[in-house]
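Hi, here's the filled form for the chain we discussed.

Project: internal
Contact: R.S.
Residues: 341
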Amino acid sequence: MEASGPGSLKARLVLPLTLLVGVVATGTLGYRWLWRDIGGTWLDGLFMTFTTITTIGYGEVKPLDGPGRVFTMAVAVAGIGAFFYTFSVVLDHLVATGMADPRGRRRMERRIAELEGHVIVAGLGRVGRQAVTELAEAGTPFVVLDPGPAAARFAEDRGFLHLAGDATEDAILERAGVRRARGLIATTANDATNMYIVLSARVLNPTLRIVARAADEASVPKLLRAGADRAISPYAIGGHRLAHLILSPAVVDFFETALKRGQEALAIEDIALPQSSSAIGRTLEALSVRQATGASVLAVLREGAPIPNPPPDLTLRAGDRLLALGTGDQLERLEKLIGSG
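And the returned structure, exactly as it came back:
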C-alpha cells in the first residue's frame, strides 16, 4: 500500500513523464529536421507529434517520404506506450488508494480535524441516535464515537462524521477534537463506561460542556462528581413526560414545539450577553426588547440562578443569559440587539 501515498505517486510518475516528454521533444525535433527543406516549423513538428501520440489522426502536416513514415511509426509506438504507462500509474494509484481507504476514513478524519466548536456524541444506541438526529436537524456539527459496526452503518448511511473507537480512550477523544469541541454527550448504555468517558473528557478539556446518560437513577450524582455538567436518566424523563401528558398536555405540547430546533413558528433560545455589549448596565425597558425585536424575555439567568419574568427595570450585567421566546427572526434580532446594545 506504499503506492497510495502522494509522495510515492510523484516518484512513480517521474519515469513515465520523462519518457513522454522525451518522445514529444524527439518527435518535434525529428519532424522539424525532416521538413527543413519544405518550410516546416517547430509548431508543425509539435502538432504532428501530438496528433500521432494521441491517435487523433488529422493527417500529415507536410508530405512524408519513406523514412518520415518510419519515424512516425516509431513516434507513435513510443509515444502511445509512454502515454498509457503514465495513465496506468495514475490509475493504479487511485485503485490502491481506494483499497487502502475504501470508506473514505482519511477524508473523514481530515473533516473532523477541521471542526471547531462541535459536539462529540459517545455511543450510538437508541438514545444516541435520537441525540444525533436532533443535532443534525439543528445544523450543529458533531462527531459520533462508537466501535460497533451497526453504528458505523447508521452514521455512513446518513453522512454523519464517525470514528469507530472506544470513547473511554484519550487517543480517540483527541482524534474527535475534544480540545476544540463545545460539548460532549455520553450516551452508552453502561453507566461505568459513561463515567470513564466523562472523566477522560473533563481532564482533556476542563471547559467542555458534558451531558451524560444514566441508565440507573442512582448513577446521576456519581456522574456529576466525575465531571458531567448534567446527568439525566431517560427512563425518569420518560416517566415525567408521560405523567405530564395526562396532567398538562397543552403545556407539554407547547414546550415541545418551542424547544424543537429548526422550528420556524416558535422557539425558546438561551442567548448570552457578550462581555463587550453596550447593553450591559442598561435595563430591559431602556432596550425596548419587546418593541424592537418582538421576542419575549422569559427569564434572565444570572450566576446559575434564574430570574423569571424579569421586571422592566432589571439592569443587565456582564455574564447574564437571556431565556427568550419568539420566532427565529425575532430571536435573531434580539441577539443582534444585545450584541450591539
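Let me know if anything looks off before we file it.
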